C-alpha cells in the first residue's frame, strides 16, 4: 500500500505537493469515489483517476541518454524539431527528460517515467553534481579559473562553489578545454558563467550526471540504468 499522492507523483501527473492539492480539490477518485483525505493509501489493485482520467500503471523505466547537439530536451516541439524522445520510439512507456540540456549542448541526460524521482532530482534543494567539458576561447587565466571555482556573479545571483580543472590549452589557437563540476541547475548556467568572465564557449558537453557517466556511449546512444544504479538514485534523493 502507498500513499495516494505518491502514486500520482510517480505516474508523472504532478509533483507530490501538487498531487496533494489535487486530492484536496476533489479531483482524484479511487474506485469511483472522490477522495479528499491526504492519508489515503491505495494498492496496485485500486483504480485511481485524476479528473476522470485513469493513471496508467506502467513499469518504471530509467534511461541514460547521450544527447547530441541540435536536439530539443523535450517531449515535443512546436517547431517540429527533433526531440530527445524521438530516440526512444522503441520504448512503450511514456518517458520524459529529467531537466534539460540546451539545443547546442550535448551529453548525459536522464529520461524516465518516474515523476516522483524526476521532481526530486530537479528540486533546487537537491545538490546533484553535473560535470561538463567546456571548450572555450581565449585560454582562461588563473584568476578566471579561481572565480569559476569560488563563484561567479550572474544576474540571478552568485553561483555556488564549483570544481574546476584546466585540461588542455592550445596557445597557437588560443583555446582551452576546462572541466567544470556544479550542482546547481540554473538556465544556461555554464555558458553564462563563462560569458560573465568574457570567455566564449565554443563547445559544451555534460560528461557526467552525478555518478552516471557516458562511458561506452556515442551521441544518440542510450542505455537502461542497472538496478543498483536506480537504487543509488533512490537512496541519494530520499531526503530531498
From TrEMBL:
A molecular-function term among this protein's GO annotations: rRNA pseudouridine synthase activity
Enzyme class (EC, first level): isomerase
Keyword Repressor recorded: no
Keyword Isomerase in annotation: yes
Pfam family, one: PseudoU_synth_2
InterPro entries with a match to the protein in the record: PsdUridine_s_RsuA/RluB/E/F_cat, PsdUridine_synth_cat_dom_sf, PsdUridine_synth_RsuA/RluA, PsdUridine_synth_RsuA/RluB/E/F, PsdUridine_synth_RsuA/RluB_CS, RsuA_PseudoU_synthase, S4_RNA-bd, S4_RNA-bd_sf
GO cellular component: cytosol
Similarity-based family: Belongs to the pseudouridine synthase RsuA family.
This protein's name: Pseudouridine synthase
Amino acid at each position: 500500500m502507498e500513499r495516494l499522492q505518491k502514486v500520482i507523483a510517480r505516474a508523472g501527473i504532478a509533483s507530490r505537493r501538487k498531487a496533494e492539492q489535487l486530492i484536496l480539490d476533489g479531483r482524484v477518485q479511487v474506485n469511483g469515489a472522490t477522495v479528499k483525505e491526504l492519508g489515503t493509501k491505495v494498492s496496485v489493485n485500486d483504480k485511481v483517476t485524476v479528473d476522470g482520467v485513469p493513471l496508467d500503471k506502467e513499469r518504471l523505466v530509467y534511461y541514460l541518454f547521450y544527447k547530441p547537439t541540435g536536439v530539443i530536451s523535450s517531449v515535443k516541439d512546436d517547431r517540429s524539431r527533433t526531440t530527445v524522445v524521438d530516440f526512444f520510439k522503441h520504448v512503450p512507456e511514456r518517458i520524459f527528460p529529467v531537466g534539460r540540456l540546451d539545443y547546442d549542448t550535448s551529453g548525459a541526460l536522464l529520461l524516465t517515467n518516474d515523476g516522483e524521482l524526476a521532481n526530486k532530482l530537479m528540486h533546487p534543494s537537491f545538490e546533484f553534481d553535473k560535470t561538463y567539458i567546456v571548450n572555450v576561447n581565449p585560454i582562461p587565466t588563473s584568476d578566471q579559473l579561481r572565480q569559476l571555482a569560488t563563484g561567479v556573479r550572474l544576474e540571478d545571483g552568485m553561483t555556488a562553489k564549483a570544481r574546476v580543472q584546466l585540461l588542455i590549452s592550445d596557445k597557437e589557437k588560443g583555446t582551452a578545454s576546462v572541466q567544470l563540476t556544479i550542482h546547481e541547475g540554473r538556465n544556461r548556467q555554464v555558458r553564462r558563467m563563462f560569458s560573465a568572465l568574457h570567455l566564449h564557449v565554443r563547445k559544451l558537453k555534460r560528461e557526467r550526471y552525478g555518478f552516471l557517466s557516458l562511458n561506452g556511449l556515442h551521441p544518440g546512444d542510450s542505455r537502461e540504468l542497472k538496478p543498483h544504479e536506480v537504487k543509488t538514485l533512490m537512496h541519494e534523493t530520499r531526503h530531498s
